[in-house]
Amino acid sequence: MKQIVGAYSLVLVVGDRILAVRDPRGIKPLALGKLPAAYGGQNGSESEVLRTVSFVDAPGHETLMATMLSGAALMDGAVLVISATDPVPQAQTQEHLMALDITDIDNIVIVQNKIDLVDGDRARENYDQIRSFVEGTVAEGAPIVPVSAQQGINIDLLIQAIEEEIPTPDRDPDAGAEFQVARSFDINRPGGRETETGGRSEWQPVETTVRSLQAGGDTVETATPGGLLGVGTGLDPAAAKGDALAGQVAGPPGTLPPIQESFTMDVSLLDRIVGEGDDGVEPVSTGEPLMLTIGTATTGGSVTSARGEECEVRLKRPVCARAGVNIAINRRVGARWRLIGYGTLR
């Protein structure tokens, strides 16, 4: 097994599986192995499986915010990893914290990692910086767990904090299944048949059947809400390869949200653009191009009308979304897309 450092190392020892996120898009969990069945506590007590937990990595660089937001749309809580060796806050940490507000995630555990690389005074100073940084944010009051992922220090306390602070939400077992598609791919070998160009220009649901289910690398017969699930379908592989279905929504026929090609949203802007010094956020203007993240979908849009705290947007790629959903708004600043606020779909 290759050595994996940083936040990835934390994922390796949480749960009953050894996991790491290695995909560059940050939303592909990779099962590297299982903990021994007899794995128990330090006092010799036997372990007890409480639940299965899925992890989605949030890329650290602030320019990959769209990827982070699309992954966060799948989750019930967040583990905010901050290095004890760096000053607090870093630009990406600020932006990730703002993103938690946008995605309505308020079950948060803060990890102060790499405490083995600093002395006691520096660790305490960094701890105080973290506590001051989260004051007045959605993470205020969240537990801060000092750990060393490489040395295995306080990993048991981290698991305890996750169990206590990020409970499994109450869900209606009788409600219709609705899947946010994070990735899609072709599992077949190269090769295929001749195809013809053409097709419908109208956006419609594609119907298929569920042929297999996988959770945590295991084949299962049924699945419950929460966590990551692999769904094998009867779709033409060409329709799924290369994440072609990422951002789509799947569910029983007749239960899906409406398809939105254009919509009106109420807009809430940040005070300033993270990573751009003290630059304030100018109001959204008519004709301005935006990058929007809605659930796991990221699409471009053009503002057709802007009036105060609301605007109308026409999308380059339609999305499947219900009224009331939050939308992350990114603006082009120089050569990068920067998070400037969020909207609420009317």
Biggest beta-sheet profile: 6 strands, antiparallel, barrel
Regarding quaternary structure, how should these chains be classified? single chain
Q: Stretches where pLDDT falls below 50 for ≥5 residues? A: 1-9, 12-38, 191-201
Distance between the termini: 49 Å
| Number of domains as seen in the coordinates | 3
Mean pLDDT: 78
Give the CA-based shape. Answer: globular
Helix content: 10-25%
Structure description:
- There is one protein chain.
- By secondary structure, the protein is of the alpha+beta class.
- 16% of the residues lie in helices and 29% in strands.
- It contains six helices and 16 strands.
- It has helices at 7-12, 65-72, 91-102, 120-133, 155-165, 237-240, and strands spanning 17-21, 29-34, 78-83, 108-113, 144-146, 179-180, 210-215, 218-220, 230-233, 249-250, 259-269, 289-294, 297-307, 310-320, 326-333, 336-345.
- Residues 1-9, 12-38 and 191-201 have low confidence and may be disordered.
